[in-house]
C-alpha cells in the first residue's frame, strides 16, 4: 500500500489548533505505517520551514520524532516540497531519513505510472505576479542572502506572516469545500480545475496512469475515461489522504468516507 497526504500546514493557526492538527497527523502516520510500502508527503507539510546551517524551526517535535522512528524501522517516507516548505535543506534527510524531491516526479507504484507533484507552479502562465513571486522564492541567491542577512527569529516571524496570508487566500477560495464530508467527484470544480487541465495536457504526450496533487486545499477525485486525478485536501479544512493498493486502485479518503 502507498499513502499520500499533503497540506498539513503544521504550525498554522493558534497553539491549540496547531497541536490538534499535529496529533492527528502523527496518529495517521502510525496507522499508515502498519502496511505502507511508502508514505508520500506531497508538499506544505509545514506552514513555514526554513533551515539555517545550524538552526531549524522550533516545534514539530512529535512529527519529526515520528518520521525518524518510521524511517529507522525501514518505512520509506518521500517528501515533496511545496510552496510553504520549499526552503528545505539537508536536515529532514539527514536527521529524519526522508527522501526529498523538489520537483514533480513520475514513479512506478503498484504497476502504475504515478505523477506526483505539489502543484503550486503549474498552469500559472496567466498570473504574472505569481510567476514573479515563484522566481523570487526559488532563487538560490536570495535564499543565501536571507539566510545570512536575517536573524532566525525575524525570518520565522516573517515566514509565518507570509504563510498565513497565503493560506487565507486558499481558505476563501475553497470555502465551499470546508463543509465537505466526502471527496468531490463531479466533472468540474473551478478551484482545482487548473491542475486537472495540466494533467489532461500532460497525459496527451506522456504515458501516465495516475496524478496526485496537493496545494489547492480541496479534495477531489476526478475520473475522465483513462484520466484519473486526485487532489488532496488541507488538514485544517478538509482532512484527506489517498491510498494506492496492490491492484493499482487509487482511492481518495476522508474521515469515515471513501470515494466511489
UniProtKB/TrEMBL annotation:
GO terms for cellular component: membrane. Its EC number is 3.6.1.-. InterPro entries: Calcineurin-like_PHP, LpxH-like, Metallo-depent_PP-like. Residues 4-218 form the Calcineurin-like phosphoesterase domain. GO terms for molecular function: metal ion binding; UDP-2,3-diacylglucosamine hydrolase activity. It is an enzyme of class 3 (hydrolase). Gene3D superfamilies: 3.60.21.10. This is Uncharacterized protein conserved in bacteria.
Amino acid at each position: 500500500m502507498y499513502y499520500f497526504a499533503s497540506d498539513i500546514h503544521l504550525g498554522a493557526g493558534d497553539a491549540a489548533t496547531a497541536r490538534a492538527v499535529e496529533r492527528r497527523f502523527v496518529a495517521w502516520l502510525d496507522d499508515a505505517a502498519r502496511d505502507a510500502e511508502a508514505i508520500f508527503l506531497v508538499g506544505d507539510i509545514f506552514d513555514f520551514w526554513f533551515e539555517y546551517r545550524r538552526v531549524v524551526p522550533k516545534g514539530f517535535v512529535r512529527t519529526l520524532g515520528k518520521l525518524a522512528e518510521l524511517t529507522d524501522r525501514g518505512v520509506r517516507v518521500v517528501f515533496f516540497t511545496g510552496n510553504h516548505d520549499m526552503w528545505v535543506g539537508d536536515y529532514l534527510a539527514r536527521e529524519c531519513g526522508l527522501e526529498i524531491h523538489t520537483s514533480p516526479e513520475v514513479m512506478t507504484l503498484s504497476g502504475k505510472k504515478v505523477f506526483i507533484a505539489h502543484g503550486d507552479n503549474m498552469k500559472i502562465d496567466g498570473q504574472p505576479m505569481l510567476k514573479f513571486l515563484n522566481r523570487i522564492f526559488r532563487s538560490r541567491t536570495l535564499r543565501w542572502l536571507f539566510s545570512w542577512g536575517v536573524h532566525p527569529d525575524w525570518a520565522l516571524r516573517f515566514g509565518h506572516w507570509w504563510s498565513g496570508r497565503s493560506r487565507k487566500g486558499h481558505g476563501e477560495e475553497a470555502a465551499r469545500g470546508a463543509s465537505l464530508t466526502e471527496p468531490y467527484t463531479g466533472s468540474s470544480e473551478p478551484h482545482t480545475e487548473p491542475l486537472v487541465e495540466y494533467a489532461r495536457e500532460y497525459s496527451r504526450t506522456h504515458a501516465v496512469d495516475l496524478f496526485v496533487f496537493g496545494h489547492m486545499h480541496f479534495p477531489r477525485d476526478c475520473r475522465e475515461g483513462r484520466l484519473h486525478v486526485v487532489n488532496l485536501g488541507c488538514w485544517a479544512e478538509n482532512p484527506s489522504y489517498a491510498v494506492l493498493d496492490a491492484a493499482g486502485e487509487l482511492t481518495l479518503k476522508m474521515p469515515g468516507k471513501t470515494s466511489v
